[in-house]
Design goal:
It is a multi-pass membrane protein. The chain is mainly alpha-helical. 69% of the residues lie in helices and 0% in strands. Helix 4 crosses helix 9. The longest helix is centred in the C-terminal third of the chain and has 28 residues. The radius of gyration is 18 Å and the shape is globular.
Length: 322
Amino acid sequence: MGPALCLVSAACFGAMAIFGKLAYDAGVSAGTLLLVRFTLAAVLLGVVLLARPGLRRAGPDRSAATGRPAMTRGRVLATAIGLGAIGYATQASLFFSALELMDASLLALILYTYPVLVTVGAVLLGRDRLTPRRGAALVAASGGTLLVLLGAGGVSFRPFGAVLAFAAALTYTIYILVADTIVHRLSPVVLSALVMAGAAGSLGGRAAVTGGVDLGFAARGWFWLSCIAVVCTVMAMLAFFAGLTRTGPSTAAILSTFEPVVTAALATLILGETLTPAQLVGGALVLSSVAVLQLRPAGSRIPPPPPGRRSRAADRSAATSS
């Protein structure tokens, strides 16, 4: 069941860009989509915690073993809320702004450079070391990303959209590295609920300052918003956690590379998008490099997954994309 749950999680996260496009077609704005998504997700996770009190308990704190400094309970809670209010809200805003300018499949491939960025960040912070295999993977991922960008032949490709997509990947990288400092100190579901609540509060404040939320979209827009909140946020996160406990972080991370493949496949089937041969080769290089980076020898340190989206690379831990 473990691998199956991880694949279900990746498929749920992979559908987010598709549901986002369909919500846009129904007249939903990016700001409304984000606020409704995180608010619904926070409420649903709160209900889950009320119904299952056992999910509030954190596992054994391995922070000392991983070299993490001691933190007070208040600082841990403030960091968790800040991850949502600043990190995840910013990342999601960039993601859905890019989605307005480019194809969902191309966006997914650019966003999925973040596991490589996480590896570079971990090396620079002294949390990991760069082996020849990881170096080769970084070269492959960089070349693959270049092919994806240079091979863009669709009319929906815009350079500014690519910049926003890469900014989302960079923001998500920082989010993961910060989340890595508190992920062992709270229950995954509690951590995810705090991240979602923080994001909802931040986006709600922004909406109040900028003139409120536009709810004058077609009724079908609520269906797609519910799909994003329930399927691509709550279900995706809970399935990942359940799979993670059965398979371990390395296997879960490798299986999470299925996500952009799902996005590209659904974009072709539902939205009629196409990828050029060069983009397909580039995407394959990016995905293979991520898998190589996650295939560590037994006993080597694997950073614990962060809250929400998936990692898409050992990260889709507590919050979720896009």
